[in-house]
Structure formats: structure tokens, C-alpha cells
Backbone:
């Protein structure tokens, strides 16, 4: 079976990954949006945090492996994830090594991120600032990069979809 393709959006919290992923799947109806946030909710439901009855393995461990399983079943995904530390980055790379990944860097300047954090109110203030110290600083070899503060969502989504479709068959992802 041909592996499903994976459009992998990487950017700090509030950079606009989820909004962008939704705009991309509207343009690519044979792709599904798969988010670390949704997966986190599954783990949260399983855990009994009040009594410290916790899943002793990182959420990302399962998330990355299920991405691989979907791809093995021929399902195309648009994934939003924050590769925010060495463990997450290494696990993502090693799990998806050789898979058809189209790697998208989602940028947004800090002042705009802080504004969005204030407005949305469901993320701790300063989270994106902390993540910016790592994310996009690891020589990530993106296939394309967008800045959600400089261009509107439709422009970014159109650009990503156009270059993705032009790229045709994707080479297997490899460490960068
Ligand atoms: N291009 C944009 N212009 C203005 N606001 C935006 C833009 N993109 C997203 N936002 C707003 O920023 C907030 C965060 O967006 P979104 O949930 O898409 O980001 P995210 O990167 O997925 O965040 P997280 O990783 O925290 O889930 C939302 O309130 C959204 O409406």
C-alpha cells in the first residue's frame, strides 16, 4: 500500500497551526487534520490527575506512532505539532524517518504571539516566548515557511497547498 502523505506544521503555540491546518484540509478534502491537542485530550480523559493516576509515557510518543500508523494505512494527514525540545524532536524524526513528510515552518513574531495569547485566554502568557527559544532554532529543513502575521490565512494555505501539490511524490523524511 502507498503510504499516506503527512503535511507536518511546526510552530510555537498561537502561531496559527490549527487554523492553518483547517484551511488546508478544506483545500485538500482527501487529507485529515490530526492535532496534538486532540490527542492530549484522549490522554487527559484516561488519566485521573487528582489521584496522580497517570500514563507514564509522553503523549508525543503515542502521537508520533499513530501518525505513522495512519500513513501505513494510506491515510493523508495534516498534523500540527510543536517540536519544542530535543526529546520531542528526536522522537518525531526517528518515528517518521523515511515517511512522506512535507515539513512546514509556521512563524509569527513575538509581539503578535503575545497579543494572541492575551486574546484567546486559554494558553498561559509567555508560553510561545519560551518555545521560541527552541522552535525554528534547530536547523529545521522546512519544505516551505509561512508567517501568519504577515499574510492572511488564505494566502498561507494557498501557498502551502500549491507547493505541496507541485512537489508530487515526497522523498522519505530524513534527519536534518
Ligand atoms: N493569521 C492569523 N491572524 C490573526 N490571528 C490568528 C491567525 N492565526 C491564528 N490566529 C488566532 O490565534 C489564536 C491561536 O490560533 P491557533 O489555535 O490556530 O494556533 P496554534 O498554533 O494551533 O496554537 P496552539 O499550539 O496553542 O494550539 C486563535 O485565537 C486564532 O484565532
Residues:
Amino acid at each position: 500500500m502507498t503510504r499516506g502523505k503527512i503535511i507536518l506544521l511546526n510552530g510555537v503555540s498561537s502561531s496559527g497551526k490549527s487554523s492553518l491546518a483547517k484551511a488546508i484540509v478544506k483545500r485538500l478534502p482527501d487529507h485529515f487534520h490530526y492535532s496534538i491537542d486532540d490527542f492530549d485530550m484522549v490522554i487527559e480523559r484516561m488519566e485521573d490527575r487528582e489521584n496522580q493516576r497517570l500514563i507514564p509515557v509522553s503523549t508525543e510518543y503515542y502521537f508520533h506512532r499513530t501518525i505513522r500508523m495512519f500513513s501505513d494505512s494510506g491515510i493523508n494527514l495534516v498534523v500540527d505539532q510543536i517540536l519544542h525540545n530535543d526529546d520531542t524532536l528526536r522522537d518525531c524524526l526517528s518515528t517518521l524517518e523515511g515517511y512522506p513528510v512535507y515539513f512546514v515552518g509556521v512563524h509569527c513574531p513575538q509581539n503578535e504571539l503575545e497579543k494572541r495569547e492575551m486574546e484567546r485566554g486559554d494558553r498561559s502568557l509567555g508560553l510561545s516566548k519560551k518555545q521560541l527559544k527552541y522552535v525554528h532554532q534547530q536547523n529545521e529543513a522546512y519544505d516551505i515557511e509561512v508567517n501568519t502575521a504577515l499574510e492572511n490565512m488564505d494566502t498561507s494555505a494557498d501557498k502551502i497547498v500549491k507547493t505541496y501539490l507541485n512537489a508530487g511524490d515526497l522523498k522519505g523524511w530524513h534527519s536534518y
Summary: Strands lie at 6-10, 31-35, 76-81, 101-107, 144-147. Residues 6-167 form a domain with the Rossmann fold fold (CATH 3.40.50.300).
